[in-house]
Automatic annotation (TrEMBL):
<keyword id="KW-0677">Repeat</keyword>
<dbReference type="InterPro" id="IPR000538">
    <property type="entry name" value="Link_dom"/>
</dbReference>
<dbReference type="GO" id="GO:0001501">
    <property type="term" value="P:skeletal system development"/>
</dbReference>
<dbReference type="GO" id="GO:0005540">
    <property type="term" value="F:hyaluronic acid binding"/>
</dbReference>
<keyword id="KW-0272">Extracellular matrix</keyword>
<dbReference type="Pfam" id="PF00193">
    <property type="entry name" value="Xlink"/>
</dbReference>
<dbReference type="GO" id="GO:0045202">
    <property type="term" value="C:synapse"/>
</dbReference>
<keyword id="KW-0393">Immunoglobulin domain</keyword>
<dbReference type="GO" id="GO:0007417">
    <property type="term" value="P:central nervous system development"/>
</dbReference>
<keyword id="KW-0325">Glycoprotein</keyword>
<dbReference type="InterPro" id="IPR050691">
    <property type="entry name" value="Hyaluronan_bind_Proteoglycan"/>
</dbReference>
<dbReference type="GO" id="GO:0002052">
    <property type="term" value="P:positive regulation of neuroblast proliferation"/>
</dbReference>
<dbReference type="Pfam" id="PF07686">
    <property type="entry name" value="V-set"/>
</dbReference>
<protein>
    <recommendedName>
        <fullName>Brevican core protein</fullName>
    </recommendedName>
</protein>
<keyword id="KW-0732">Signal</keyword>
<feature type="domain" description="Link">
    <location>
        <begin position="198"/>
        <end position="293"/>
    </location>
</feature>
<feature type="domain" description="Ig-like">
    <location>
        <begin position="65"/>
        <end position="196"/>
    </location>
</feature>
Length: 496
């Protein structure tokens, strides 16, 4: 009995060796260890102060070596990572060895087998697509990711398998998984990636091909967007975007993306799919424009009523809720972020649109996108301002002033209206729709806003230049008409 008790005491108080933990550094034992080889601490009391007290006794009694993996994989960017269309992204993947890192041979097959095997996979809508597989200096990239995917650090440091993905497309949004295997050990981690930004075609409601190059840039800015770059348009095309309408791009070229070549949509590609390119064009020529929207510093919400709204009523309803009619660019950005609503609604430029993420019957056809209500088959003509639809309102985040967007100001019985557009600028006038008239439109074609009793309000025939006064009339009206309504732009500090 005494010998058994002695053996038990020796077993309890014999020092336990704890393996060292190596991080993604050199893996050769230079990292700080979590415990020493003699896990004893001095206690100031309890069991006779100053006597050694054993630690890790509970772990020794209740844990098993097989419960602790010798290899761990981590992506330290949870829960999600955002990137921008046509940009680049680096998704980190770090490998940690809980113990001495396996050593590689000096050359040949032994050297390769002594390094971890890494596989990156993309997961979207329940489908898995292999991006690349790497071991040592050998990297095999799948055809769909050729020239876009790489492991820029892995060949220098085998504990860093971070993935670099370039020329991002809309359909690069999804889950990315990093799998690592080394000998009998393996591990993995995942990360959700969201690619922000959307390219969309834009035109005024009155007719096709309405903008000079300068007017095209202004049109995108007016709806809360920017004119798209060639890289952004190409990335959108690779993501499935198609539009058979020639439009200005930021480099003063005119292009349009086609996946299914057809009559009137061949361009310069001889029947092959691709982005048609007219090259650099005279800036005074007339085309549509491709705009790009990315950030949405606020929220868009659908407002409805049984009787719906006219355009003026929609704007008033949004204002009553502490918001404003959303711009076209804002609606596209919200759609890109997942907004789905099968309800046509007014926007600030007088158009009627609705965002569809999940295509369904009676919601604009079999393709996702922002659907637009046009009056004519050639996709021109916005609905009459007295037509009744729902309203899409935008409310900015606190601390983010609303961007300059076309806005209808109330007429208020012909009294002068004071409307604040942007810090440093005030606009005085009657009922004013901040949108230039179509440069090729005849006077009878100029869309007119109407007040609550149907009286035509003033029609916009000039462009507003913030802080620079009122231009105009536009080129088509020059020498033929004067200003259709009184508008004065005053420099003032509206923040006081």
């Amino acid at each position: 009995m005494a010998s058994a008790l002695l053996l038990l005491l020796l077993w309890v108080f014999v020092p336990t060796v704890v393996p060292e933990v190596f991080g993604p550094g050199d893996g050769a034992g230079n990292s700080a260890s979590l415990a020493t080889s003699a896990p004893w601490v001095s206690s100031g009391g309890g069991l006779g102060g100053g006597h050694p007290v054993p630690v890790l006794l509970t772990a020794s009694l209740f844990s098993h070596p097989e419960d602790v993996k010798a290899l761990q994989v981590s992506i330290p960017r949870h829960p999600a990572l955002e990137a921008v269309l046509a940009g680049d992204i680096t998704i980190p993947c770090l490998i940690t060895y809980l113990g001495p890192q396996p050593t590689a041979g000096t050359a040949g097959r032994q050297a390769v087998l002594g390094t971890p095997r890494v596989k990156w996979t993309f997961i979207s809508e329940g489908k898995e697509v292999e991006i690349l597989v790497a071991r040592g200096d050998r990297v095999k990239v799948s055809e769909d990711y050729r020239l876009r995917a790489s492991l820029p650090i892995f060949h220098q440091r085998y504990t860093n398998a971070s993935l670099l993905l370039t020329e991002l497309r809309p359909n690069d949004s999804g889950i990315y998984r990093c799998d690592v295997q080394h000998g009998i050990e393996d591990g993995h981690d995942i990360l959700d990636v969201k690619v922000k930004g959307v390219v969309f075609h834009y035109r005024e409601g009155s007719m096709r091909y309405a903008y000079t190059f300068a007017e095209a840039r202004e049109a995108c800015a007016r709806i809360g967007a920017h004119i798209a770059t060639p890289e952004q348009l190409y990335a959108a095309y690779l993501g499935g975007y198609e539009q058979c309408d020639a439009g200005w791009i930021a480099d003063q070229t005119v292009r349009y993306p086609i996946h299914t070549p057809r009559e009137a949509c061949y361009g310069d590609m001889n029947g092959f799919p691709g982005v048609r390119n007219y090259g650099v064009v005279d800036p005074e020529d007339m085309y549509d424009v491709y705009c790009y929207a990315e950030d949405l510093p606020g929220e868009i919400f659908l407002e409805t009523t049984p009787d719906k709204f006219t355009l003026e009523e929609a704007a008033a309803r949004c204002r009553a809720l502490g918001a404003e009619l959303a711009s076209t660019g804002q609606l596209y950005a919200a759609w890109s972020a997942g907004l789905d609503a099968c309800s046509p609604g007014w926007l600030a430029d007088g158009s009627v649109r609705y965002p569809i993420v999940t295509p369904r019957e009676r919601c604009g056809g079999a393709l996702p996108g922002v659907k637009t209500i046009f009056l004519f088959r050639n996709q021109t003509g916005f609905p009459d301002a007295l037509s009744r639809y729902d309203a899409y309102c935008f409310r900015g985040k606190e601390g983010h002033p609303p961007p300059l967007t076309p806005q209808m100001l109330p007429r208020r019985d012909q009294r002068e209206v004071l409307g604040s557009l942007r810090a440093g600028v005030r606009v005085l006038g009657g009922c004013w729709v901040l949108a230039p008239a179509h440069p090729r439109a005849k006077s009878r074609d100029v869309p007119q806003a109407r007040d609550g009793i149907g009286i035509p309000a003033c029609s916009p025939c000039c462009d507003i230049a913030i802080g620079q006064g009122c231009f105009g009339p536009s080129r088509s009206y020059r020498g033929r008409i004067g200003m259709p309504c009184m508008v004065s732009v005053l420099h003032d500090d509206i923040s006081r």
